[in-house]
Design goal:
alpha/beta, 5-stranded parallel sheet, 7 helices, 14% strand, globular
Length: 209
């Protein structure tokens, strides 16, 4: 069996737009991915609301991805693949990050996988650039000020990092257009579409390994 760790934020956790509830596993993209890949694969879901690549969120602990990833890598090994999809929360205004800054931080997470002693160089990495931030409700305008334009630059910046590290890359915006109901999260159909598309990508990655 091939173990796949999916390390992400609220869209990996399964946050329902507006209501803030959690989609059932069968609806979340990780559940769709598991169903699509079948019994020869085990999808490990590690999503957390507000998680960043490497930034500490004031007043909310344990959101720093780079501080938590080593524990995940060791506790879930052996791993055939680590899927990293983070960066949206890094664009919150108080962090003052550019798209290039976010991509470089995502690259540090990828290097952490590649250089992890416990994984012995056997684990592949798939870096996913997150979806665009779209029309934001009034109560989010200040939180994500200027983030919409930056989010549209992430894919090209992430692709360059993936090329530099010689790892796999997937552009989520090719499949999912973020709902306008809150500007950040995905509707149920978007989870389904992404899970199925990612399954095809992962099969091509792991079948060639």
């Amino acid at each position: 069996m091939k173990n796949i760790l999916c390390f992400g934020d609220s869209n990996t956790w399964g946050y329902t737009p507006v209501t803030g509830q959690r989609y059932p596993l069968s609806v979340r993209w990780t559940g769709v991915l598991q169903q699509s890949l079948g019994d020869d694969y085990y999808v490990i879901e590690q999503g957390l609301n507000g998680r960043t690549t490497r930034l500490d969120e004031p007043g909310r602990a344990d959101r720093n991805g780079i501080a938590l990833l080593p524990v995940m890598l060791e506790s879930h090994r052996p791993l055939a693949l680590v899927v990293i999809m983070l960066g949206t929360n890094d664009l919150k205004a108080h962090y003052q990050q550019s798209a290039k800054d976010v991509a470089q931080s995502a690259g540090l997470l990828c290097k952490m996988v590649l250089e992890n002693d416990y994984l012995e160089g056997q684990t592949q990495v798939l870096l996913v650039s997150p979806t665009w931030i779209t029309k934001l409700p009034d109560d989010c305008q200040e939180v994500f000020a200027r983030a919409t334009d930056k989010s549209r630059m992430l894919a090209s910046c992430f692709a360059k990092i993936a090329e530099q590290l010689q790892i796999h890359f997937f552009n989520a915006t090719k499949v999912v257009k973020t709902t306008n109901s809150d500007g950040v999260h995905w509707e149920a159909q978007q989870h389904n579409d992404f899970g199925q598309a990612l399954a095809i990508k992962i099969q091509s990655v792991l079948d060639g390994s």
